[in-house]
Specification:
Number of strands: 0
Structural class: mainly alpha
Distance between the termini: 70 Å
Largest sheet: none
Number of helices: 11
Radius of gyration: 29 Å
Low-confidence stretches: none
Shape: flat
Helix content: over 70%
Strand content: under 5%
Oligomer: single chain
Order of helices and strands: HHHHHHHHHHH
Mean pLDDT: 79
Amino acid sequence: MVTLISLGAGAGLGLWALLVWLVPPPPPLAELISRLNATPARPPILTTGTGGWAVRVGSPFAGLLRAAGLPGRTVGQDLAIVERSPETHLAEKAVLALVGLLLPTVVGVLLTLGGRPLPWPVPLGVSLVLAIAGFFLPDATVRAEADRRRDAFRHALGAYLNLVHVLLAGGAGIEGALTDAADIGQGWSFQQLRRALNTARLTRTSPWATLGQLGEELQISELAELAAALSLAGTEGAKVRASLTARAAAMRQRSGAESEGRANAATERMAMPGVLMAFGFIVFIFYPALAQITNSL
């Protein structure tokens, strides 16, 4: 009786979920009114690309993951930095999870056909581990790539501040110095700066507003602080040449300290392989003698 009740409740819950998915309930009136009264958001400065074989294979599962609330806010910001669309990311997660889930099963079937069957818990456990690892691997890859781009942008921002300072010393205006300095540099970082300034020009907004928006999208506090300083110069006539020089020097010192810290960490990591090699060498030398002493006893 308990089994029948459980099966009936599960079937009813599944039918209810299917009905809600096919005929979704109308949104509340308050939500509709808030949509009508909401102010349009600024267009994003960072662009994303789409395409690839993973999108074609994993697109049926990307919608399910999207409905589950993936990717999160942090991962979404990292995806915008690496110029990858959420659909592509979710499709890659689904494909890698499926590959990790099915690959051990295929190997187990081949071994069974070859006369060397494995116990069923082994392929099952390996499938679960590989599926979980494949599901979270794209998140770790995107996070690492986004961190590298943030570091590169901070380095380029220091050079950009130096160029702006030189142009301001030559008598250029603030907006002209910002635009000319962005046109000089090359690479992804200066490309984002040029896109932000072009967005300000096309939308008829102040350049420091779009630079502040770019700092929020990239999660770089230095760019947001620069936008605030430029806003004071543009609206209240504050002199920012000395401030830009100080900010550029501080960013160079911070970049140098971070590079030194990464070099020290890499040096410490290199000590572990040396210790393992020394231990292996000691075992290789003394094992025959220990084996001979043990056998003689």
